[in-house]
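Sample entry (809 residues):
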Amino acid sequence: MPSTCNYCPQVCPPYPLPDGENEDSYLRILSLKGAAERYGDSTQHPAAYGQIEHELSVIKKLGFAGYFLIVYDIVQFCRRSNILCQGRGSAANSTVCYSLGVTAVDPIANELLFERFLSPERDGPPDIDIDIESQRREEVIQYVYRRYGRECAAQVANSITYRKRSAVRDAARALGYSPGQQDAWSKSVSRLHSLPRPASADPPPKDKLPADKLPPLVKELAEGFLRNPRHMGIHSGGMVLCDRPITEVVPVEWGRKEGRTVLQWDKDDCAAVGLVKFDLLGLGMLTVLHECLDLLEENFHKKIQLADLPLDDPAVYEMLGKADSVGVFQVESRAQMNALPRLKPKNFFDLVVQVALIRPGPIQGESVHPYIRRHNGKEPITYDHPCLEQCLKKTLGIPLFQEQLMEIAQAAAGFSGGEADQLRRAIGAKRSAEKMQRIRKRFYQGMRECHGIGADPEEQPGPRARPGWTPLPRTIGDKIWTKMQAFSAYGFPESHAQSFASLVFYSAWFKCHYPAIFCAALLRSQPMGFYSPQSLVADARRHGVHVHRPDIQKSGVTAQCENKGKDVRLGLDQIQHLGVPAATKIVEARIQNGPFISIADLVVRTQITTKQVEALAISGALAGLPGSSSTTPKTPYEEGQDRREKLWQAGLEAHTRPEHLPGITLTTAPSLPGMSAWELAIADYAGTRISTYPTQFLRDKLTQRGVISADKLPHQPNATRVQVAGVVTHRQRPPTAGGVTFLSLEDETGLMNIICSAGLWKRYRNLLTTSSGLIVRGLVDSAEGAVTLIADKIEELPLGVTMKSRDFR
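Predicted structure, serialized as tokens:
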């Protein structure tokens, strides 16, 4: 059987070339053309052209020109189709990629190391990840199928393994328990802990059990399922192209989504047989930025490109320094918002550091606090050896980027670029002990020959000696090697951080200068990001944006801006149980035949269901229709009365259909009571999941018992014991936190970060995991600029409504 398998190394499909050109020559033409646009001619920027020549020689030697041309072709399709895209990862280290327009980061200006991306010693094709705006990624995938032939292209599979909840659900199903029991038991399993303790006995499947009890057989079977394959899925971005029908190499099946074919192997299997993979990744923030550009042109008649935005805008950095970053790419999490006031970014490179610094690796490597202290002048900048100053100067002596590991190897031990990349991969992948020992020996030998580190006192410098060579203790080399080993496990590519930092700035720029546009763009791009639409709208309102309810006479399918780009009108897609198809019908009917004159008119022209009409009524979207109220609602009571009337009418007039005689439904509503402001808020939340925070209506009582609002928390002295209250928006317990749990609370004035120790969590666990609203007492921690509350007592805050939170993700 092996003799019949076509397992020879694969290559990319041939790229369509102009007459007289081969792949290498055509890549050279495109690179030099792009360099002229990016840098000017060779006399203006000789360093860039020299680097391009070097990279092209490496690419030619390795035979990867076709790979670069295909990536260039995909990016060009995105440009022609007005789809935002951006290369990221180590590809941003390449001047060729920058010249081709694949990446947006200048590796010459930022002194990025090409060998981190591609070196002559590389044993596989390069890895160029392309971020594409998520809502249009499918267009790019289908273009690749059309361009290179469906028989030569397929998406990579992904092996989905059992996790705790899916293991419990399937174990209970296998043992014959009812769907209700399966669901209850799986939901009782926390993402943070092992499977719950079993009940004392294992009753037969038909018996009813409390949701928090797990029968021993279910638990035993579920534990056996954990980390084993459950089913095959589709890789988030991987797509394989081949120079022959791909079915000759690997089994292929049709995907569930129309127009997709999927390999039956995962990415590791594909790499093992030499299949070339392209990563086409969906990124929600690119969708947001595209919407921002469109809304800016629509409302302010300004047509700009992201590259036109000034990266030195002081207002943007001032906003970020205050941790005002809700909705901003990459820096909206609790940890990032805690670090922003401490780091206080003042320029673009500070944003690059911010992206790379607040990650599990640097936190585990204890790099965060030393860097911030040095950045703020509270700790001297030191180096283990003077040769490291050039490598680590820009990060204040603290290694943050993977490229720096390679630069250290070159500066301290005289490694070539290819050797340095081999060192990075060997340490990071924890290769064999023999290989590590060989690399370690080479590293120590290089330090001795280049700088005298570990040399005998009487030893003389050799031909590889660098200026200032002098015998030094071996302990210096031990310190450098130990730090490199520790750093390799968490280092972040600077090129990747540069790419992401640009998106941080672009999104922050729109939030700073056009908050209504930014809010509308975020709402159009849901689901995505760290915050719910409720939190995004609340933040926009705190920035002076007036956010209006959906209205069938004014709203589009998605959110849009009003009042010359200063206000936001929620889209009909935000209404629960309505759906985008029904919302589209409503908008199209209004555009074609004018405003709706009644609920019956709406139903006849759109054919929406009774449930959908009632959803419109609950959300207040029917307020623009002529109703039974003789006056325009102004007070909450009058507005609530109109909403009750519309809901009553909806139940009757929703049955109106073209095939029925007109006028046979009774539509005159009886005299109905109005709604209080609280009841309107509850109706808004039920209708759209966006409303006023319940704490607004409880504020007087909360103030009487000494509970302060979120906007007053930053003004409390450090170590003061205070009480706060709010809706729980997030629960998090990072692996690096040592059992500490972080809560995010929000009230009508802002966000609050709460720290719960392991002991406090154990004491109040049931309350902390089940309550939508909490009153928290604790000590203010604001010593380093960021404000958190270290909790010591928890109480439930009755809200009268259950509000969802994002937990342990």
